[in-house]
Amino acid sequence: MSVFRTTKIPCPACGGEAAFDLVHSVNADRRADLREAILAATFQQQPCSGCGVEFRVEPEFTYLNLGRNQWIAAWPRSSLPDWRQYEGEARESFETAFGGEAPPGAQEMGKGLIPRITFGWAALREKIFVREAELDDVTVELAKTALIRSSPTPPVMTAELRLLAIEGEELVFGWIDSNDEKGLELNRVNRALLTEIEADAAAWEALRTQMSGALFVDINRLLLAEAPEPAAARPKASPKKGASKAKAAPVRKKKRK
């Protein structure tokens, strides 16, 4: 089932407290509407009851879709620098829930599940979209590498590259501002690029090896590869009820008629 908990969140505009029904876990098999809300970029977004400004609380929950073989531990984008820690903790959580440490019934349910972790709404939406399109997410990340290499000035320090849509034979990638998730620049490429990457296995072997078998399958894994290891004293990173304080995403103005 999908589990929610009511939490009071400070409004980033006026500072007043707004009651949010924050999700602890999403079961997309039973609640397809929640999956659609994530894809529409409206999930966990609502107006402040005091000032009317809309804001969105960053993701911090597990997402399960047995029908599409997906298990995702979703985290705020601000946690990205500590991806190694979160990946390790998520692996332990998955093993306990559906892997070798789970009860036999849960292990049977977990057969075929592909575990992943994401940071921020744009990354979570992309993983769900890529799976729906029946694309290999590792190959998609390698395609992003090709786009970054071919771009004279990729904004990798201020934005993240995401697959936003598929229009006919075109893959529509967009640079997403890390603060408000708005598209800054679109890159359209023929989807044959994915076939070319998979066919040229030798050229992409090193980068594919870095992501194959990982839970954090994202171009940021490569960009942050040289980042320092997280401090051992940091808290556990597995989504739990009340585990940490939810944070509001950048303010969005409420549309008034």
Describe this structure in words.
There is one protein chain. With 257 residues, the protein is of the alpha+beta class. The chain has a domain at 133-226. It has 8 helices and 10 strands. It has helices at residues 32-39, 83-97, 104-110, 121-132, 137-150, 192-199, 201-211, 219-223, and strands at 3-10, 17-27, 45-47, 54-56, 61-65, 70-75, 114-119, 159-167, 170-177, 183-190. The strands form 3 sheets. A 5-stranded mixed beta sheet has the order 1-2-5-6-7, with helices on both faces. A 3-stranded antiparallel beta sheet has the order 8-9-10. Strands 3-4 form a two-stranded antiparallel sheet. Strand 5 and strand 6 (70-75) form a beta hairpin. Helix 5 (137-150) crosses helix 6 (192-199). The longest helix has 15 residues, at 83-97. The model is unreliable at 230-238, 240-244 and 250-257 (pLDDT under 50).
Offer a concise description of the structure.
The chain is α+β, with helices and mostly antiparallel strands.
